[in-house]
Design brief:
single chain, alpha/beta, TIM Barrel, 6-stranded parallel sheet, 3-stranded parallel sheet, 9 strands
Length: about 240
């Protein structure tokens, strides 16, 4: 399995606070069937892209080194979760923030109320720059719940949807669960991520989650969303 969205990298955002936690989260991920993790720390400061990338890459190399020492054969690849805002409109190159140097860019909207016309403008900016946006957890956004027609506007732009496994099992509420299951089963969402932040509540122990998945998410759908499609993204292929 491949996790395309998580906050497993230490001391860089609101995810793992230290290296030991990162290693434990990686160990849990490997023991639960993951063989590749794309680290996607939160990114929001478009004036300091290089500083963020330098910090992220340094921490990735440090984590890889410890995983090798600890004999945890988990492949760790680079990415980021872009917080979309007007800052993107005048930002420099975003290439180093894409998933594994591909065309795919994981991004997120504000969770609370915001102007969706601006949101679509931010998405269009990514597309004009040659990226394929992956919208993280669409099932969690207030503005999408308020106006479901936004989903069609995003799909018309070939935006890829990634739902959280916690949403599929109801951890983010019944409304988010219903929408996430619907997006997966209708073929609108092609990726499932952990969005893991810690060892206790938002973790990488996916075997616990798989047992709780709704019956609509069968084995074939699950494998496509957590292995086949993520591999295509890493390889910079169409999904």
């Amino acid at each position: 399995m491949i996790d395309i969205h998580n906050h497993i990298l230490f001391d860089i955002d609101d995810g793992a606070p230290d290296l030991d936690t990162s290693v434990d989260m990686c160990r849990d991920a490997f023991e639960n069937g993951y063989r590749t993790i794309v680290v996607t720390p939160h990114f929001a400061d478009y004036n300091h892209i290089d500083d963020f990338v330098d910090q992220r890459d340094y921490k990735i190399e440090k984590l890889r080194g410890i995983l090798q020492i600890e004999d945890i054969p988990l492949k760790v690849l680079s990415g980021a979760e872009l917080f979309l805002s007007d800052g993107i409109l005048n930002a420099g190159s975003l290439d180093d923030l894409a998933i594994n140097n591909s065309r795919y860019m994981l991004c997120e909207f504000p969770l609370g109320p915001f102007n969706m016309k601006r949101g679509l403008l931010w998405i269009d900016e990514l597309i004009e720059r040659g990226y394929t946006p992956i919208l993280a957890h669409p099932e969690r956004y207030f503005e999408i719940h308020r106006n479901l027609s936004v989903i069609d506007e995003l799909l018309d732009r070939d935006v890829v949807f990634q739902v959280n496994i916690d949403s599929l099992i109801g951890k983010n509420g019944s409304t988010a669960q219903q929408l996430s299951v619907d997006l997966i089963c209708r073929g609108f969402a092609g990726l499932i991520g952990t969005d893991a932040h810690d060892l206790k509540y938002r973790h990488t122990r996916t075997k616990e989650r798989i047992r709780e998945l709704p019956y609509e998410i069968d084995h074939e759908i699950f494998v496509k969303c957590i292995k086949t499609n993520p591999q295509k993204i890493i390889d910079d292929e169409e999904i």
